[in-house]
Description:
Subcellular location: Nucleus; Cytoplasm, Cytosol; Membrane
Organism: Salarias fasciatus
Pfam family, one: SBP56
Helix content: under 10%
Structural class: mainly beta
Radius of gyration: 20 Å
Shape: globular
InterPro entries: Quino_amine_DH_bsu, Se-bd, WD40/YVTN_repeat-like_dom_sf
Strand content: 35-45%
Largest sheet: 5 strands, antiparallel
Keywords: Acetylation, Cytoplasm, Membrane, Nucleus, Oxidoreductase, Protein transport, Selenium, Transport
Amino acid sequence: LSANCSGCGPGYRTPLDAMKGPREEIVYLPCIYRNTASVRPDYLATVDVLPSSPTYCQMVEPVDLYFKCGLANPHTSHCLGSGQIMISCMGDPSGNGKGGFVLLDGETFEVIGNWEHPGEAAPFGYDFWYQPRHNVMISTEWGAPKALLDGFNPAHVEEGHYGSNLNVWDWTTHRKLQTIELGPDGAIPLEVRFLHDPDATEGYVGCALRSNVFRFYKTEKGTWEAEKVINVPSKKVEGWLLPEMPGLITDILISLDDRFLYFSNWLHGDIRQYDITDRRNPWLAGQIFLGGSLVKGGPVKVLEDPEKQEQPGPCIIKGKRIPGSPQMLQLSLDGRRLYVTTSLYSGWDKQFYPDMIKEGSVMMQIDVDTDRGGLSLNENFLVDFGKEPGGPVLAHELRYPGGDCTSDIWL
């Protein structure tokens, strides 16, 4: 998130122009202490990612985070053409689900008020993306914050504490126009991405619980629909919470040229790269395992895998065995470097990857083959958040100061 949203950022006219911009030099990450042994406040970290810099892979300037808003559990932020900042929220102050949006002044960061009209918040909230040329915004639904707090309870799905809808909004009037019901295959829709082409009327959303990616699109009638285009099959296992383990797609992003879609399977432990040139028929172009719950020698044994993949070995970088699993993603503007962190949500981290709570999360970098497809680990890059002065911390979302693949929207 840039320090001032009232400007026009680096000034790229199109997504393809942005791909020709300079290499990223620093990355911002929120770092979370909740559910760890520390009682220190959360903070914003700045990581040097320029290989020629003497502080490459180090922390530069931690800044304490203080945030106030009318709703609770803020998540996604986007800068608006008006100079304001808009932030989605997941619940009310009591921990119930409530998908509302807060507007901030882009210079003072003072709360202006709610974006949506009174009484029109969605049942649940999480992510959002807007496409101003088509006067539309689409938001997603995770679940009630009080149900997420201490980890995942499968019974909460049946009890209605998790969402399964996409909410379509009129960008100009702030009115909710339509609810797209994704059904059980679309349970827990998290990150949503329109194509970067500002004329496009389609995009993708990752649905965590059954590890599906849906394509959403505008129909000839002017309404919006969705169809499932990618499925990561669950694996039959023993030694785990349930008899079948889903991939749990938690983050997705699209390259600025709208050619590749990337997502992380936080339970299985892999990142996948799909060619989406044929929008309705994506095909797998690259895959890499970076830890996860299926690592050989761990407590989980795979009994049946529809994809017939071997259980991966542990991910080791610079002598450190990586705790946790790939989660948040950020792609360089030119599409050649993918940055990855491992923390999802502190309560879920504690449940599924307790070693990460003790050791802290990490930041890794993947080299991307943009010609033929393919992913490979940069074994010289590792930021270990277990070595923070205040103790191990959980690093989360990655953002560049001048805009990136998950925040830039062209008007």
